Amino acid sequence: MNVFLLNAMKNKSLSKSYKLMAVYTQGRNYSTPIQDAKPFNSIPGLSSLPIIGPLHHFLPVVGSFGPKADLFNVVGTLHKKFGPVVKMKGILARADMVFLFEPEYIDQVYRVQEANPLRPGFETLEYYREVIKKDTLVGVFGLTTAQGEKWRDFRTKVNPAMLKIKLVKVYAPGLEEIAYDTVERFKRIKDDESYMETNFVSEINKWSLESVAYVALGSRMGCLHDDLTEEHPSRKLMQCSKDIIETAFKLEFLPNPWKYISTPAYRKIIKTFDTQWEISKQYIDSTRKRIDERGYDIPEEEKSIVEKLLAIDERVAILMGSEMLMAGIDTVAFTATNMLYNLATNPDKQKKLREEIRSGETHKRYMRACLKEALRLWHVVPSNLRRTDRDHVVGGYHIPAGIDVIAPNEYLSRLEKYYPQPNDYIPERWLVDKGHPLYYGNAPAIVTLPFGFGIRSCIGRRIAELEIELFIKTMINTFEITWEGPPIKVVNKLTNAFVPPFKFRFKIAK
Ligand code: HEM
Fold first, then answer.
1. Are strands 404-407 and 97-100 parallel, antiparallel or unpaired?
2. 464 and 492 Cβ atoms separated by less than 8 Å
3. Hey, where are the domains in the chain?
4. What does the alpha-carbon distance between residue 84 and residue 456 come to, in Å, rounded to a whole number?
5. Who contacts 371 (Cβ-Cβ below 8 Å, separation ≥6)?
6. What distances in angstroms separate CA 211 from CA 178, 224, 353, 375, one per listed residue?
7. What are the two backbone dihedrals, phi and then psi, of residue 434, each rounded to the nearest 5 degrees?
8. Closest of 277, 173, 156 to residue 218, by C-alpha
9. Which of 61, 164, 313, 346 has the fewest beta carbons under 10 Å from its own?
10. Could you tell me if 509 and 480 are in contact, meaning their C-beta atoms sit under 8 angstroms apart?
11. Domains 3-139+382-413 and 148-380+450-508 agree in fold
12. 380 lines ligand 1 (CB under 6 A)
């Protein structure tokens, strides 16, 4: 067994899943000798030029894909043209990438690295935290950008508060109230169709920010007030979340020499990180003040995430609070919109869900299936990534350490061989028994990973699921939702986003 797994098993603070992973990997044999493998350079893929790598394929006119290429289609073309292992040279000093299209190959690379999952990317945020904010953060860098020991220390501290279902469920009454307030606001604005068609994203982001802020800070932010001003800090937080994704895409996936000179996009992202940091810090400081003024302790399960973490490590509490206010807005809003769209365009499923909601059943089986099916069709993050920390032999090819291995999970989740009628919204596939042709378990579990993989998977998963289920429940119980227009469009810039107009129509449900 390798040294990472041995260390993992010795470390008592690591989760059970860690140990299970170790046992699982131990039983496998991936030991094709490297000398028998085909060399890394022989992996097929797009042709590449010095410095700019494969970028010329994305240029106007001459590029085979062009500048407006849809990443979903690019991935599909790579698969069809080059097969199950595809190489893409890094652009401007970025690491080379390998796309894996066989679940077994992804499993091989991701699982063996499970004790030390490396997920680089977001280099600008890493630079901001580790260089610009060095003196403030003093070695605690958050989950999104940290690797190795620093990541593990942080994650071990925050895992229980954020992932234990029992602890997360205590936020349900507050989140239900927020869902109710959002629906009341929708009732007031729904008939202004031109406003809703343009501003649906900002309306739904108000709900997702209000919800995640409530869980993080234990109080209401006030995003749902009808007279929310442009200067309200919540507006700025929502804008930051969007600008960070947009600008990070330009800086990290398109050629931009920000590592050598200060470019306008670089200055913009640093300013945005500053604003995001300042506002979240203000909110966290007020939370701390409120706790001090209260002067007495409340039961552990009633505390907000920040309050729980303040008792463990102050810097961890501040950074986790700030990450929640960054990572918990657009992700959750996108998934709720995804679900609403699929329910609006599949009225029979919507009816069935309403019946379950009104039946008073507590198991919510159909609700869960509706959410899983929406996530299968559109992952917020369409591909997962791990950087190799050792040599691998995959599909007969040598993949050395330092390569970004991409699992194109959203693309795989829409292949007929894994899910019959793959582009249809069929929540039932998550409910039918083994043996049924639609049974979800016919696809290997690693095909569909909307929340990522293993111990580095999304820390906000339980919170997101709870927020979305309560919101959808209130929406579907109140409204009959239809979609009156052509199919919705999705763009992918690091994460998926829907494009206006939003042709939802909301009628009070009988
Ligand atoms: C439906 C909503 C969401 C989806 C689909 C989603 C998806 C993801 C994915 C795919 C990853 C990468 C995991 C990996 O590399 O294996 C991730 C990481 C992360 N997510 Fe989420 N996310 C969602 C909501 C949230 C929320 C609400 C929060 C905060 C409360 C959050 C905070 C984070 C953080 C901090 C990480 C980095 C974890 C680490 O590296 O240890 N996410 N998420």
1. parallel
2. no
3. 3-139+382-413, 148-380+450-508
4. 25
5. 335, 339, 465, 468, 469, 472
6. 7, 11, 23, 20
7. -50, 140
8. 173
9. 61
10. yes
11. no
12. yes
> What topology is assigned to 148-380+450-508 in CATH?
Cytochrome p450 (1.10.630)
> What does the pLDDT look like over 380-411, one tens digit per residue?
999 999 999 999 999 999 999 999 999 999 99
Contact 143 CB / ligand 1 (< 6 Å): yes
Strand 404-407 relative to strand 397-399: parallel, antiparallel, unpaired? unpaired
> DSSP label at 488?
P
Buried b (16+ CB within 10 A) or exposed e, 370-382: bbbbbbbbbbbbb
Q: Tens digit of pLDDT for each residue in 218-244?
A: 999 999 999 999 999 999 999 999 999
Report the distance separating Cα 227 and Cα 211, nearest Å: 19
Three-class DSSP category at 371: helix
Question: φ, ψ for residue 492 (rounded to 5)?
Answer: -120, 110
- Nearest Cα residue to atom 28 of ligand 1: 460
Phi, psi of 363 (to 5 degrees): -75, -25
Beta-bridged to residue 398, according to DSSP, are 393
Rg (CA), the chain: 23
**Residue entry with tokens 């797994």:** 5
Ligand 1 centre distance from Cα of residue 458 (Å):
3
CATH code of domain 3-139+382-413 = 3.30.43.20
Asked if 212 and 337 touch (Cβ cutoff 8 Å), the reply is: no
CA 417, CA 338: separation in Å to the nearest integer?
Answer: 23
Nearest to 249 by CA among 276, 230, 268, 233: 268
Q: Is 464 in the pocket of ligand 1 (CB under 6 A)?
A: yes
- Which backbone phi and psi does 247 adopt, to 5 degrees? -75, -35
Average pLDDT, the chain: 89
**335 close to ligand 1 (CB < 6 Angstrom):** yes
- Report residue 10's pLDDT band, with 50, 70 and 90 as the boundaries: very low
Residues 6+ apart with CB under 8 A from 70: 491, 492
Q: How far apart are alpha carbons 442 and 460 in whole angstroms?
A: 27
Cβ within 8 Å of residue 375, ≥6 positions away: 335, 338, 448, 450
C-alpha span between 350 and 481 (Å, rounded): 8
Phi, psi of 482, rounded to the nearest 5 degrees: -125, 170
Quick one: tokens of 310?
Answer: 């303040």
Ligand 1 atom nearest the C-alpha of 335 is: 1
- CA 275 from centre of chain: 22
C-alpha–C-alpha distance, residues 480 and 468, integer Å: 17
The structure tokens listed for 383 are 């591909």
Binding site: which residues? 458
ipTM: 0.99
Is the previous residue joined to 501 through a cis bond, with omega within 30 degrees of 0?
yes
Amino acid occupying residue 2: N
Which residues lie across from 504 on neighbouring strands? 483
